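Q: You know discrete backbone vocabularies at least as well as I do. I have my own habits and do not want them to colour yours. No explanation is needed for now; the record alone will do.
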Amino acid sequence: MATEPTIAVLNAASEARESRAATFFSTVSDYWALTKPEVNFLILITTFAGFYLASSSGPMNFHSLLAFHTLVGTLLVAGGTATLNQALECSFDRQMRRTARRPVAAGQIQRSHAFVFGVSLALAGAAYLLIEVNGLACLLAILTLATYLFLYTPLKRRSWLSTTIGAFPGAMPPMIGFAAAHGSITGEAWVLFAILFLWQFPHFYSIAWMYRDDYARAGIRMLPVVEPDGRSTARQIVLYGLALIPVSLVPSILGMSGRIYLIGALLLGLYFLYSGVRVALERTILRARYVLLVSVFYLPLIYGLMLLDRPGL
């Protein structure tokens, strides 16, 4: 029969194991959060859309293994970019309520460790794309990382035009997917780029309006910070929402998708525009949040329609 001291020792050992396990899983969770998985989900959707639309017609000709390699490589580079961004901006993240709990800003992961992790992910992803996919996809992924980290990130504290600069790397995922499958960039790839490029403005301007106080506190010169009454922000949301409608119809004109997509894209675009008009008429956080919600549903729906209504399937 175990004595009381023996039981105490066993309990202490058990508690130590549980504590180590909890610490391990907490650390894994923190590193996972560094990669921004919620953003990467949309990146993978648009990358896959680009790959699928560039593939040979018909599901029997779809190169699933190459698609897998493309998504893995893109995910690694995207995760590395997100991690490096948080390492670079941790001092600013601490000043904003919505970002103060990010792992580096909150002190859960050391900045130097985040740098090593981010560089490792990015290099691994670039090498993976180069070896398993092709050089063009690798080059586009590296260009995306460089533009985001070295142009968009520092420009945020200098000019509200940073949103425009940031939209270029933000629209690259379908180009990466297209280049992976096709080996080159064609007019169809630029159409996919343009749709994602224009979509970002209502999406990010609505976020900027919702968190303008946070951005102002951190010295980030988003448009609602520079122009506090929101008129210019609302105007930008409406103008880009309006421009998105005809551009989103081009895939049907080029034969990339059929009539179902044409009707669906038109209806989605009109509703997206409607949400923008509402925020222009009533410049409130509630209306901005609604634009954000509509934008989050718009993107996977329009790309999903494009894939499902592809001619020849």
